[in-house]
Write a structure and sequence with these properties.
The chain is of the alpha+beta class. 25% of the residues lie in helices and 33% in strands. It is built from 3 helices and 8 strands. Strands 1, 2, 3, 4, 5, 6, 7 and 8 form an 8-stranded antiparallel sheet that branches. It is globular and about 45 Å long. 26% of the residues are buried.
Length: 189
């Protein structure tokens, strides 16, 4: 059975342009997203990335399609990524960012899927890795939400402040409701 693609969404009380800048600017992006230890542009829409998981660093490359603005006011960016690093479980994949204005903020959704290397062992390892990757994506999305809503930089947030549980993890129409309401927490002390 093929594993499910990863999907995470949350509503962030901010404007579309601010959220978009924080997802597309590599210097801002790596500050909130635990999946990346480094993102370096190598030309228009191309980048090198470094990920670190359990102390193991792996490198890869990616390309993002030109962003698209939709008639409903939303904005989408699509990307492909791959790693030739033999230590990387992920061989290649693709994903998207979608930012949609909603009452009270902007719905931030991301989804991605990937193929594994290492044959049967890689498929088995992915049974553990994929849920962890989904949790890290959700935790990072909430970390971004806290940054934009409270002004507390990711580096200054206590590790217990972001919560993956605040994010929807199922695509709308995929069984569990994908409706996510804006969050109303106080500013972190």
């Amino acid at each position: 059975m093929r594993p499910k693609a990863l999907y995470v969404e949350t509503v962030i009380r901010t404007d579309l342009d601010t959220l978009w800048r924080h997802t597309q600017d590599p210097l801002l992006h790596r500050r909130w997203d635990l999946l990346f230890a480094g993102i370096t542009p190598i030309g228009e829409h191309h980048f090198h990335y470094t990920s670190r998981f359990l102390g193991v660093a792996v490198a890869g490359v990616g390309v993002s399609a030109a962003p698209r603005d939709w008639p409903d006011g939303s904005r989408t960016s699509v990307l492909r990524f791959a790693s030739a690093d033999p230590l990387s479980l992920i061989s290649a994949g693709a994903g998207f960012w979608r930012c949609t204005p909603v009452p009270g903020g902007v719905r931030f959704a991301t989804g991605f899927d990937y193929g594994t290397r290492w044959g049967r062992f890689g498929q088995l390892a992915d049974r553990v890795f994929r849920p962890v990757l989904g949790w890290l994506t959700a935790w990072s999305s909430d970390r971004l939400r806290l940054w934009l809503e409270t002004g507390v930089a990711p580096e200054d947030q206590p590790l217990t402040a972001p919560s993956a549980a605040r994010c929807g993890r199922t695509r709308p129409g995929g069984g569990v409701s994908g409706v996510v309401q804006p969050h109303r927490e106080k500013v972190i002390d």
